[in-house]
Design goal:
By secondary structure, this protein is mostly beta strands. The chain has strands at 24-26, 33-37, 40-42, 60-61, 71-80, 83-91, 109-115, 123-130, 145-149, 152-164, 170-179, 187-188, 202-205, 211-215, 250-254, 267-269, 271-272, 290-297, 300-306, 313-318, 325-332, 343-347, 350-357, 368-374, 388-389. It is 0% helix and 38% strand. The model is unreliable at 1-47 (pLDDT under 50).
Length: 390
């Protein structure tokens, strides 16, 4: 979600963020158009037809941004009390150049998006948590997630601490904050979750009530620096460079009933190929990079993730929350922009994929969240989605 890969030179005119209050665009293909005003998108009829948005290459987009008053990315969507809440990163404009450490992703706070239905008005809620209110944090509030239990909402977030590495940057840890409201404000615990590291927390609660946190990401997410179970501040900035060895894995840890601590030492989430062997580090179209997300359907556990530098969203399936998971295919082809980070929920008897691209800005660090329907074949497989349409 946060790292750079050289993009083709483009001269397309970006849509000014503050000029979108009169921009009429459909939130989802086939749904009513929405006029975005301030923090809320409201369905209205346009007095004058607007030109259909196109990519710099002239392609039509499959779906349109949920909101345009702020930049958002890395959407973690949930259904709480029948209403949809999206917990995204809040992108901000900076003058830093793109690099492999993700310095251009300088997010400072979180704001929750809420809607009664997909395709309806989307509200941008006030700041839910600011980095200045996290005692142990230094900078870069990256992709969050949320959970609910016994009247309390939990916001999980990765942010750098104040222990500097060879690049003068803090070590990523995962924090937790709580609120009685799904949109916050959230109050952060004074310390990160003990035993947590890297980024991209995603919490899955099984039917028996047990909750698990999946997390991790290579390159700027620093997962490669934890290969021996201890952080190496002078370790690689990318991966281990071992293309013929099993790829680095995302992590999983069962949460204690307090939802704020690990009940066990984090373990690997292993992805296997069709022959039952671990996917290798050199297999960049299938190996894990970042953005774990797990859901359960038809008795199967779906482990979904991003491949980072090849820009796919993938899925693998298993028979329990820990895996191993067998690779099955691509969920989403590459979007406009470098990163691809997502979530998947069931709502109104359908499944939905929340994702992001750079339609509004055509800049890697200024993204916008979208949603489209996710479909399944009779055997449980997922047909690959193209973020563009012919």
């Amino acid at each position: 979600m946060r790292l750079r890969f050289p993009m083709p030179a483009r001269r397309a005119r970006a849509v000014p963020l503050l000029a979108v209050s009169a921009l009429v665009i459909p939130v989802l293909a086939g749904l009513a158009p929405a006029l975005f005003t301030g923090g809320t998108a409201t369905a209205q009829s346009a007095a004058k037809p607007q030109a259909e948005p196109r990519s710099p290459e002239g392609k039509r987009y499959l779906s349109q941004p949920l909101v345009t008053s702020i930049y958002t990315a890395d959407p973690s969507a949930h259904v709480f009390n029948g209403k949809i809440y999206v917990y995204p990163s809040h992108d901000i404009d900076v003058t830093k150049a793109d690099d492999d450490l993700g310095n251009q992703y300088a997010m400072r706070d979180y704001r929750v998006l809420s809607m009664d239905r997909i395709g309806g008005p989307v509200k941008v809620n006030p700041v839910a948590l600011d980095v200045k209110d996290v005692p142990w944090a230094s900078q870069q509030m990256w992709a969050p997630d949320a959970a609910y239990k016994n009247g309390t909402y939990y916001l999980y977030f990765p942010v750098r601490d104040k222990q500097l590495d060879k690049n003068g940057l803090g070590t990523f840890r995962i924090g937790v904050a709580t609120s009685k409201s799904p949109v916050g404000p959230f109050k952060a615990d004074p310390k990160p979750i003990a035993g947590s590291f890297s980024m991209d927390p995603a919490v899955f609660t099984d039917a028996n009530g047990a909750s698990y946190m999946y997390f991790g990401g290579i390159w700027g997410g620093q997962l490669q620096r934890w290969k021996d179970g201890k952080f190496d501040p002078n370790g690689s900035d990318t991966d281990l460079g071992q293309d013929d060895q099993p790829a680095l894995s995302g992590k999983i840890a069962r949460l204690n009933p307090d939802m704020k601590s690990f009940a066990e030492t984090p373990r690997d989430v292993q992805i296997l190929d069709e022959a039952g062997k671990p996917v290798l580090g050199g297999d960049h179209e299938r190996r894990f990079f970042e953005a774990s997300w797990v859901f359960k359907r038809g008795g199967k556990y779906y482990y979904t993730y991003s491949t980072g530098d090849t820009h796919f969203l993938n899925y693998a399936t298993g028979d329990n929350p820990y895996g191993p998971f067998t690779y099955k295919g691509h969920i989403l082809k590459p979007v406009q922009g470098w990163t691809s980070h997502h979530s998947i929920i069931e709502w109104n008897k359908k499944w939905w994929l929340f994702y992001a691209d750079t339609q509004l800005s055509n800049k890697n660090h200024l993204r916008n969240v979208k949603v489209t329907e996710l479909k399944f074949a009779a055997d449980g497989s997922i047909p690959t989605i193209d973020p563009f349409v012919n």
